[in-house]
User: What shape does this take?
Amino acid sequence: MHLLTDFDLTKDQIHEILNLSTEIKANPGKYGDSMKNKTLIMLFELPSLRTRISFEAGMNRLGGHAIFYSIEGGKFTRSETLEDGVKNLNKYVDVVMIRALKHEAVERIGAAATIPIINGMTEAYHPCQNLADLLTIQEYKGKLEGLKIAYVGDGGCNTANSTMIGCSSVGMDVTVVCPDNPKYSPNPEILAKIKEHSGGVVEVSHDPAKGVAGADVIYTDVWISAGMEEEAKMRMEAFPPFKVDMALVKKAEPDCIVMHCLPAHRGYEITDGVMDSPQSVVFDQAGNRMHAQNGLLHWLLNEQ
Ligand code: CP
Assistant: This one.
């Protein structure tokens, strides 16, 4: 089985992974050899701090081994096809994590692989991030179902997609708070697929104060992701009303937590005051990348 998009997981499967993540996080000694003789290869076409280090450190903690391999500029296959390159990996390693510019490449790798493939972020999805986010929300709130999450910012980006899909799957109420422009709003095809996948109906609001009202979780992400540099000027004009500051946080539930997948651009999508406030859980969330991925690796390699 692969984790190429958040649609690959059902509600029950997400809970199985989260339960394993919690168990491994609480009992590191018990799982210290659980990935012995297992090798993860990490293919990176784009830079990373959290994904790279959390996967490598996580594999190390479980007694396994991780290989970093840059695929920037087509280094992965040189003159052979992507599929032929993957048929080599099938012979050497137990699991592949890939961060790629184009989701299509991850789908092609998945189709050629006989070992599990994990999407470590593409322009369309960031499923490992969502598993870490759900683990963090569960730790802070004690539950997932019935909570309201307000995703504030670019409703069409990869993190928004994964938040909408994953949070809807576990029965959270999702509101995307974004500029009134189809470019920055949720993709209608994704919304339709969410309805089919989990029955979830994502709300969309273009009014930040109304959109976060009643939220148990406020989530934001950068306004300009990798590959969007040409749109920077337009984005810097559209997004300032969607900055997460303390005035906006006060419109949500009093015990609302604030999340960010990081890296954060302080002063833009989130203020210093919010990032450093007691309501911010962003660094625990980053820490949970490793724990959620350890649960995922276990689930994929030992339980599928
Ligand atoms: N959140 C996230 O994926 O961080 P990196 O880009 O540093 O991996």
Observations:
- The mean pLDDT is 96.
